[in-house]
Amino acid sequence: MPTVDVLDKDAQKVGEIGLRDDIFSVELKPHLFHFVLRYQLAAKRMGTASTKTRSEVKATGRKLWRQKGTGRARTGTSGSPLWRGGGVVFGPKPRDYGLRVPKKMRKAAVRCALSLKLTESKLLVVERFDLPEIRTKSFVGHKEKLKLESALIIVNGENANLHKSARNVPGIKVMKTEGLNLFDILRHDHLVLTKEAIEYIERVYGS
C-alpha cells in the first residue's frame, strides 16, 4: 500500500495517508487509454454538420437548354452538383459519433491514470481546499505554494468558493468527484485530491 503525504493548502505537511493498491498501484495498460479517450472525444462531437443534396437545394426544374445542337454539354436542373449553388455529393449528414465502451473498462482506465500520476510523483493529497471567500488572488497564492502550473483539483461535494476563485486561472480545473474522468486527468500535469475525494474514489473505483 503506497503512502503519500497529506498537505494543507499552504503546502505544509499535516499527516500521511495510505492508498489502496487496487486503485493507485495497478499495471499500466495504454490500450485502455486509447479506447476510453476515443470514447470521450467522440462523445464531445455534436454530429450536426449537414449539407443539401441535389433534391434538397432550391433550384428550377426546367431544362436549361435543349439537349442537342448547342455544342455544349447536355444538362438538366441547375441543382446538379456540377453547378455553383447545386447539391453536394456525399456530403455530411447529421449522425451520432458515440462509441460504446463498457463501464468496467472506463473505470479501469481511470485507475491506470491514477496509478500513473502517483508513479510520476504528480499526485498531491490535501486535507481540505476550502476558501473563506471568492478571491482569485487568494487561490493563486495557494497554487504557487503547492507549485501547480497545470492541475486538476478534485473535491467532494459543493465548494463554490474554490470553483469560482479558480475558474479564470489558466491551466487549473476544479471538478467534483462525480465528474472524474480519464481525459481531464491526462490533460493536466498534476492531480490534486482532497482526503474526502480519495474516500469517494476508493468507494466507487475499488475492484
Shape: elongated
Helix vs. strand class: alpha/beta
CATH class of the largest domain: Alpha Beta
CATH superfamily heading of the largest domain: Ribosomal protein L4/L1
What percentage of residues falls in helices of 4 or more residues? 25-40%
Counting DSSP H or I runs of 4 or more residues, the number of helices is: 7
Low-confidence stretches: none
Strand order of the largest sheet: 2-1-3-6-4-5
Number of E-state strands? 6
Query: What is the distance, rounded to the nearest whole angstrom, between the alpha carbons of the first and last residues?
Result: 15 Å
Give the percentage of residues in beta strands. Answer: 5-15%
Could you give a short account of the major beta sheet?
6 strands, mixed
Look up the CATH topology of the largest domain: Ribosomal Protein L4, Chain: A
Order of helices and strands: EEHHHEHEHEHEH
How many discrete structural domains? 2
CATH architecture of the largest domain: 3-Layer(aba) Sandwich
Question: On the 0-100 scale, what is the average pLDDT?
Answer: 94
Query: Over the alpha carbons, how many angstroms does the gyration radius reach?
Result: 27 Å
